[in-house]
Design a protein that fits this description.
Strand order of the largest sheet: 7-14-12-9-10
Strand content: 25-35%
Radius of gyration: 44 Å
Shape: elongated
Helix content: 10-25%
Structural class: alpha+beta
Distance between the termini: 169 Å
Number of helices: 5
Length: about 600
């Protein structure tokens, strides 16, 4: 019986192989359990992070709307610290005055670890964004030690405050709003964290479809840019699928809403899901280029021909000595509606010109115009598809304010749509630019800096000519009538009319001959007048002296002036007077 019982016991026991199989199966079950738990924990962390980012962004909006400022803050913890500060001017602040977050809140940042979803503070957007990155905030925690920190208060700058000075209830502040434009950038390392050729062991995973990029790759007219791009997940992908996109190398951003791209931009996008059973999608790509727009300009030559004074020549009136022209040449853009304001910028083109007739695109004497942004003045009025409105008119601005438009919106309209307020080149010139010639051969071009966006304009010419003026005749005078030898004669230039150039010369003769004109602004004979003189000093026994004088242009500027008419003064010595003491009688002068 004992032997039989032993055999029965043996039949009930497990073999070694059976025991090993059971242990192996248990290990597999435990490993699967751990994987599920880890994935669940990661998913919970991601969900928690999303909720915390959403709450923080709401707190930021409240903080900013109540006069707070986050300018010059570029770290996540720095933002949180600022949100903890109360208003120093709490007696005047209307609305929330205290902290907008728990003072124990702390950002736990990770750097240099694996790529995963993290919160990134984007100062240019003024909010936190979620992105796959190797650095950023993985979670936000409550640290009781931070409750002991004394967070200094700061003044809040709101548009409406309680008055604390003169008994009125309300007082207002003036301040500028900051408008964020364009997509932000979230730096990552190494691009998207997936292999476009598939992943090992993915046979049992469901691969997501590449997101749709709209519009697709295209070459468009420049006026279509900046172009709005929309990303959507494809039908059949899970509802909670996320899309990340990149418009810069190694910079990936979580897609939340349509964004704008510039010309010559390539958009990459992929779909991803938090559940590990879904494999990331292949990359979707769309490239956008533009057809370069030809620059066209017009020249508004306000005065042609011009006088010596209008060209900046100095005059001898003691008051007016201009150093720049009264009427410069105005350059206007003739393609204002074909080139969007974003590209009417000196980063894309600038005006250049020469004064010597050479090509400003190749000449070493080329002058470069102003730097500008936000538009260039056009020659098509205020239209630009926004109606014939003078946005800088105070009456229009007051009416706009009364209709509910804010001052910031009005300033925007003035900047973008008031063509008269836009920058433009005014080509000045000085008398030296003529270089002694009677024609200024101005050559002007709009020079492209980015040929894939805009191309050079034609070289335009403006030949500004000289308006010649006849110089006023001089005035010959003698002191006390000049009745004897030793009395002097003076010759004056007429300067009262504001037409006498600095450097004009007087030549005269005493024998009645005309000093003449050689056709180049110089006399044929005569003496250069340098000061008062005795006309009878060298007369000898002659009984008559006839002074003839003219005014001549400054040397080098004969092309601007005609030599003056003659001035004449005749003197005679009475025969009854001795030669030792003759008397002088002025017969006539004019």
């Amino acid at each position: 019986m004992e032997t039989i019982q032993t055999k029965q016991d043996r039949r009930r026991a497990f073999s070694l192989i059976e025991l090993l199989a059971v242990i192996a199966a248990g290990a597999v079950i435990v490993s699967i359990g751990f994987a599920v738990i880890n994935n669940t924990r990661s998913s919970i962390k991601d969900t928690k992070l999303e909720q915390e980012v959403s709450s923080l962004n709401t707190a930021i909006e409240v903080f900013l709307s109540n006069g707070g400022s986050l300018s010059d803050i570029d770290t996540a913890q720095g933002v949180i610290t600022e949100l903890k500060r109360a208003a120093a001017n709490e007696m005047q602040v209307v609305g929330l005055r205290g902290s907008v977050v728990d003072v124990r809140l702390q950002a736990v940042e990770e750097r240099g670890s694996e790529l995963r979803e993290r919160a990134i503070w984007m100062a240019d957007l003024g909010k936190f964004v979620l992105a796959e990155s190797d650095s950023g905030v993985r979670e936000f925690v409550l640290n009781d030690e931070l409750a002991k920190v004394d967070y200094s208060n700061v003044a809040r700058n709101t548009s409406l405050i309680y008055n604390d000075a003169d008994g009125w209830v309300w007082e207002t502040n003036e301040f500028n709003f900051v408008t964020n434009t364009g997509p932000s950038s979230v730096p990552t390392v190494g691009g998207p964290a997936f292999n476009v050729d598939g992943q090992a062991g993915s046979a049992n995973r469901s691969k997501l479809k590449s997101p749709l990029i709209s519009p697709g790759s295209a070459t468009l007219a420049l006026v279509e840019f900046p172009l709005e791009v929309t990303l959507t997940k494809q039908e059949g992908d899970p509802y909670s699928t996320r899309i990340y996109y990149s418009i810069e190398p190694n910079v990936w951003v979580l897609y939340t809403s349509p964004f704008q791209v510039d010309q010559s931009t390539t958009v990459h996008a992929y779909a991803i899901h938090e559940d590990s059973k879904f494999e990331k999608s292949d990359l979707a790509t769309a490239s956008y280029d533009c057809t370069p727009e030809d620059l066209r300009i017009v020249l508004n030559v306000q005065k042609n021909p011009v006088t010596y004074a209008e060209a900046g020549g100095p005059l001898e009136d003691g008051e007016y000595t201009p150093v720049s022209p009264l009427e410069p040449v105005i350059v206007l853009l003739d393609t204002g509606t074909d080139i969007p304001l974003e590209y009417q910028d000196s980063d894309y083109f600038q005006v250049s010109w020469t004064y010597d007739g050479s090509n400003p695109l190749t000449s070493s004497n080329s002058v470069t115009g102003i730097e500008f942004t936000g538009g260039y003045k056009t020659n098509n009025g205020h239209g630009n598809n926004y109606g014939d409105i003078d946005y800088s008119n105070p009456a229009w601005q007051q009416e706009a304010l009364e209709s509910g438009m804010t001052q910031e919106e009005i300033d925007y309209m003035v900047l973008h749509y008031d063509i008269e307020a836009r920058a433009h080149d005014k080509i000045g010139y000085t008398i030296e630019n003529w270089d002694g010639l009677t024609l200024l051969p101005l050559r002007v071009v709009a020079r492209s800096k980015k040929a894939n966006v805009v191309t050079n304009s034609m070289v335009h010419s403006a030949n500004i000519t000289v308006s010649r003026m006849t110089l006023p005749a001089p005035i010959i005078v003698s002191n006390e009538g000049a009745t004897k030898r030793g009395d002097i004669v003076e010759i004056h230039k007429v300067v009262d009319g504001g037409e006498m150039p600095v450097g004009a010369r007087i030549y005269y003769t005493t024998d009645g001959t005309d000093p003449g004109d050689d056709g180049k602004g110089n006399p044929l004979t005569g003496t250069l007048y340098t000061g008062p003189f005795d006309p009878l000093l060298d007369a000898g026994v002659s009984l008559e002296v006839n002074i003839v004088a003219r005014v001549y242009p400054p040397e080098g500027y004969a092309g601007w002036f005609n030599v003056s008419p003659l001035s004449n003064a005749a003197y005679s010595i009475p025969e009854s007077e001795s030669l030792e003491d003759p008397q002088i009688v002025v017969d006539s002068w004019w």
